[in-house]
């Protein structure tokens, strides 16, 4: 197994989240080394997205902890975690519908704003308001710089987004909204990128493009946690694969090894078969 | 009379009345995730139908109750069929605005039919008092308790043992699943609106009899009280609504016992704000429910703003700037001064409701804060009027933001409720804090507008002054929208979860929006105070909040030019068509309804 010896970038221990009687995430352990790409697979409702929500601060765990670069970040707000360099995309696609593609991606760079977002306690917000209204040279320069950067990020998607840069996101196709989400995440210059089904609803050509992009990001050294249903993509990209079912981690390892694990096959084929078998046994 | 038991009985009886309103609200919220702001209007309609029945038709009491219930249910069905069903697939803000519009239309229709003067509604019951322990109880108390218990029982049987009742509960649990199982959701909605309206109407009748007086101001109060009770009990929770109502009744009754009658509503709204802040899901819901998954960009209608060429704007601006030099009547200038003052308020509201998506229904409170601050600064401390107005703007920005900040954690309809309540709290504090605000007497003798020692008394100078102030505020706001703040505000409006995941602090940016918006509204209030020379706690009322909201929807949410165009249109057009003042609010309500239905993005489009 390719687990790095250095301290992991992300380390999750015993993470648990219950909704009423349902344990959506059940004592999950997970380590992610710098530059690694780990995929999480599992049937629908296995708790993958809930795990993402816990790691990014959108939800709080009932037990367990998350540490990022050696620091305990359990239960920190999503704003803080974004500032720490954790960026994510959303399964259902959460672009800002009325914002242009450019503005959507610029929001991604929000945590990096310096000139317009002074880090002064108490009067910081008022200074921010003042600077936004006065717009001294430093503010303009920063904004221009970011706009150039956004264009560079968008050019990674070929001609998919650049010609639509001023269009509102609600007018984009489903696949293009996904791309905008990824562009927005990249604008944060993340140290950890969480992708939640980036190819959902994409046709084979588009999926191949996305796969190439993720491979490129990995080659650039970005650490990525990926939720994906398309197994071929998972097998090609991942250093390791984690399989979840009913909130639990049921298998972990290299792609091929996980693929042949009987527990994984059972999880995918459904418990119905084994349950039915059990019942027959007990009846007999 | 002053016994503890009396206050308890009174609290429970009033609570019972609130419960009739709140249960309806809870049922409606359950099946359609909508807070029906028109519920109080149905209550008002019920009270007046009861008055017609009792005073003019001399119906016996049981028949009166039946007539009111049936007539109110009919109103409810009409609202559902023509007001809300067409909006089923539209954005979330649409039904919210529609019920606000319906509420104003109904209230105004009642006011135009029966005049705004209070009327006596005799209770038709013998005037005797029974002694119980240290307290007394009247037949009417027993009637109210009886009606409350009977309704609860009937409702329980309906929800538990009838097929339609099951359908209502199924729809409340999971609308989509219910639809897939073949539940006719339209019929469920109809049933729920009918029941809610019948209960609300009877409630209005009973309250009218209890106080032996009905007037058109009852409507807003009833909506507020019902919503408070419902939210305290947990939105959509029917038994919770009953308990919340009784609790509200008791809190108010004991509050009145301890501090006096004028504090009654203050306690109700403070209870609401405390519950919203500490337990936004109500007293009986678990604090940690599954996080909701709102879809993207569904709160406001997506649209492309109409692009107006810069030269056209400059030409129009130029025409209005030199208007006093042209041969126009004083009347036109006077009307436009009103439009500019409303324009400042609309700029404020379009930023708060449109750009960052916090639909405030208490915006007139910001006017009041600005007006009182400016008036008192110039009167008590002899601050020059120009500075006093700026002081009013700053106070409104600071105090308004501080007051509204507890609601920053809330979403969608809850923000509207909280702002409505906070608006009422401000007005009640102004009424009761006599040491500072001079209480019900109001502030008179406010010095006229002046600038650098020159008094602005001629309509021409007032026109220019208010025009320039409004244009400056509009330019500042346009500049704000073009900055990273504009984009951050709009991102929070479109999807606050994604915005947080990218490091946008909701508290920080909502505060900034209210600070900026509060300043503009405070300036408008300050100027108004010096123009009117007299203000009291009713000068800036909910009608102005609703007028501003209509302006904002008309112009296009978040649209700076739209806010100004909308103000000129809504102030100017009634003058052009010489519509009598009492019909205007009716027309504003109808305009709001038509816009929501046919052009939700407004004239110039959402930005």
TrEMBL record, chain B:
GO cellular component terms, semicolon-separated: plasma membrane
Membrane-protein topology: Multi-pass membrane protein
UniProt cross-references to Pfam families, sorted A to Z: BPD_transp_2
Keywords: Cell membrane, Membrane, Transmembrane, Transmembrane helix
Ranges that cross the membrane: 12-35, 42-59, 65-84, 96-115, 142-159, 191-211, 254-278, 311-333, 339-357, 387-405, 412-433, 462-481, 512-535, 547-573, 585-604
GO molecular function: branched-chain amino acid transmembrane transporter activity
Species this protein is from: Bradyrhizobium hipponense
Keyword Metal-binding: no
Localization terms from the record: Cell membrane
UniProt-recorded name of the protein: ABC transporter permease
Main localization, broad class: membrane
Domain of life, source organism: Bacteria
InterPro entries: ABC_transp_permease, LivM-like
Parts forming coiled coils: none
């Amino acid at each position: 197994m390719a687990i790095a010896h250095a301290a992991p970038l992300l380390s999750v221990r015993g993470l648990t989240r219950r909704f009423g009687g349902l344990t959506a995430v059940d004592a999950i352990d997970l380590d992610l080394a710098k530059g690694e790409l780990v995929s999480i697979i599992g049937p629908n409702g296995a708790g993958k997205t809930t795990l993402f929500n816990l790691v990014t601060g959108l939800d709080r765990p009932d037990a367990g902890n998350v540490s990022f670069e050696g620091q305990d970040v359990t239960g920190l707000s999503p704003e803080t975690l974004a500032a720490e360099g954790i960026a994510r995309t959303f399964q259902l696609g959460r672009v800002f519908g009325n914002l242009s593609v450019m503005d959507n991606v610029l929001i991604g760079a929000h945590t990096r704003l310096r000139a317009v977002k002074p880090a002064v306690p108490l009067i910081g917000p008022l200074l921010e308001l003042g600077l936004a209204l006065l717009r001294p040279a430093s503010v303009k320069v920063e904004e221009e710089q970011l706009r150039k950067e956004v264009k560079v990020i968008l050019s990674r998607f070929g001609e998919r987004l650049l010609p639509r840069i001023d269009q509102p996101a609600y007018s984009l196709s489903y696949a293009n909204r996904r791309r905008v989400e990824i562009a927005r995440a990249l604008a944060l210059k993340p140290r950890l990128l969480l992708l939640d089904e980036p190819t959902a609803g994409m046709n084979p050509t588009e999926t191949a493009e996305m796969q190439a992009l993720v491979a490129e990001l990995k080659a650039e050294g970005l650490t990525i946690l990926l939720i994906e249903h398309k197994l071929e993509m998972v097998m090609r990209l991942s250093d390791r694969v984690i399989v979840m079912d009913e909130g639990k981690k049921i298998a972990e390892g290299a792609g091929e090894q996980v693929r042949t694990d009987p527990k994984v096959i059972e999880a995918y084929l459904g418990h119905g078969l084994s349950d039915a078998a059990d019942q027959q046994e007990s009846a007999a | 009379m002053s016994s503890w038991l009396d206050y308890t009985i009174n609290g429970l009886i009033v609570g019972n009345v609130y419960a009739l309103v709140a249960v309806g609200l809870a049922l409606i919220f359950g099946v359609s995730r909508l807070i029906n702001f028109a519920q109080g209007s149905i209550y008002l309609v019920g009270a007046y139908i009861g008055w017609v029945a009792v005073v003019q038709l001399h119906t016996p009491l049981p028949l009166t109750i039946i007539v009111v219930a049936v007539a109110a249910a009919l109103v409810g069905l009409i609202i559902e069929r023509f007001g809300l069903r067409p909006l089923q697939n539209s954005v979330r803000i649409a039904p919210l605005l529609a019920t606000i519009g319906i509420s104003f239309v109904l209230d105004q229709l009642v006011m135009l039919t029966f005049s705004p003067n209070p009327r006596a509604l005799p209770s038709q019951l013998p005037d005797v008092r029974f002694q119980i322990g240290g307290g007394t109880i009247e037949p009417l108390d027993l009637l109210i308790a009886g009606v409350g218990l009977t309704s609860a029982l009937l409702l329980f049987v309906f929800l538990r043992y009838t097929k339609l009742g099951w359908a209502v509960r199924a729809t409340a649990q999971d609308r989509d699943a219910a639809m897939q199982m073949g539940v006719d959701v339209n019929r469920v909605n109809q049933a729920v609106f009918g029941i809610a309206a019948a209960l609300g109407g009877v409630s209005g009748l009973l309250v009218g009899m209890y106080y032996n007086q009905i007037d058109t101001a009852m409507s807003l109060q009833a909506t507020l009280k019902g919503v408070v009770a419902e939210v305290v009990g947990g939105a959509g929770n029917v038994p919770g609504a009953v308990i919340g109502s009784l609790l509200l009744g008791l809190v108010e009754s004991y509050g009145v016992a301890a501090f006096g009658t004028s504090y009654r509503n203050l306690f109700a709204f403070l209870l609401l704000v405390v519950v919203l802040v500490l337990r936004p899901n109500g007293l009986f819901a678990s604090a940690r429910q599954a996080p909701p998954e709102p879809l993207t960009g569904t709160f406001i209608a997506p649209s492309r703003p109409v692009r107006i060429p810069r030269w056209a704007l400059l030409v129009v601006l130029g025409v209005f700037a030199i208007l006093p030099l042209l041969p126009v009547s004083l009347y036109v200038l006077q009307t436009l001064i009103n439009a500019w003052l409303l324009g400042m308020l609309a700029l404020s509201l379009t930023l708060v409701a449109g750009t960052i998506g916090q639909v405030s229904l208490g915006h007139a409170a910001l006017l009041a804060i600005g007006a009182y601050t400016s008036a008192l600064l110039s009167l008590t401390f002899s601050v020059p009027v120009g500075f006093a107005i700026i002081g009013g703007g700053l106070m409104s920005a600071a105090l308004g933001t501080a007051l509204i900040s507890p609601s920053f954690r809330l979403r969608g309809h809850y923000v509207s409720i909280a702002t409505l309540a906070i608006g009422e709290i401000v007005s009640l504090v102004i009424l009761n804090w006599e040491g500072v605000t001079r209480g019900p007497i109001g502030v008179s003798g406010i010095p006229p507008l002046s600038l650098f020692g020159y008094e602005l008394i001629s309509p021409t100078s007032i026109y220019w002054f208010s025009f320039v102030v409004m244009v400056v505020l509009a330019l500042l706001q346009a500049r704000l929208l073009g900055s990273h703040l504009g984009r951050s505000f709009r991102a929070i409006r479109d999807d606050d979860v994604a915005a947080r995941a990218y490091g946008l602090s909701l508290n920080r940016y909502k505060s900034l929006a209210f600070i900026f918006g509060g300043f503009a509204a405070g300036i408008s209030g300050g100027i108004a105070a010096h123009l009117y020379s007299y203000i009291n706690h009713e000068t800036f009322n909910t009608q102005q909040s609703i007028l501003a909201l209509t302006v904002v929807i008309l112009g296009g949410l978040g649209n700076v030019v739209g806010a100004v165009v909308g103000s000129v249109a809504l102030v100017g057009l009634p003058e052009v068509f010489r519509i009598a003042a009492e019909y205007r609010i009716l027309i504003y309500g109808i305009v709001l309804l038509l816009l929501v239905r046919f052009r939700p993005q407004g004239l110039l489009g959402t930005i």
